[in-house]
Amino acid sequence: PPAVFPLSCAVQSYSWGKLGLESEVARLLASGDPQFCVQPDRPYAELWMGAHPRGDAIILDNRIPQKTLGQWIAENPACLGTKVRDAFQGNLPFLFKVLSVNTALSIQAHPNKELAAKLHTQFPQHYPDANHKPEMAIALTPFEGLCGFRPVEEIVAFLQSVPELRALVGEVAAEQLERSGSDDPRGVSAALRVCFTRLMKSEKKVFVEQLNTLVKRISQEAAEGKDTSGSNGDLLLRLHSQYPGDIGCFAIYFLNLVRLEPGEAMFLGANEPHAYLHGDCVECMACSDNTVRAGLTPKFIDVLTLCEMLNYTPAPSSSKIFPAVQSQLDPCVYLYDPPVPDFAIMRIEIPSSIKLYLISAVDSASILLVIQGMAVGTSTAAGSEMTLRRGSVLFISANESVSLQLSSPDGMLLFRACCLL
Question: What pTM did the predictor assign?
Answer without folding.
Answer: 0.96
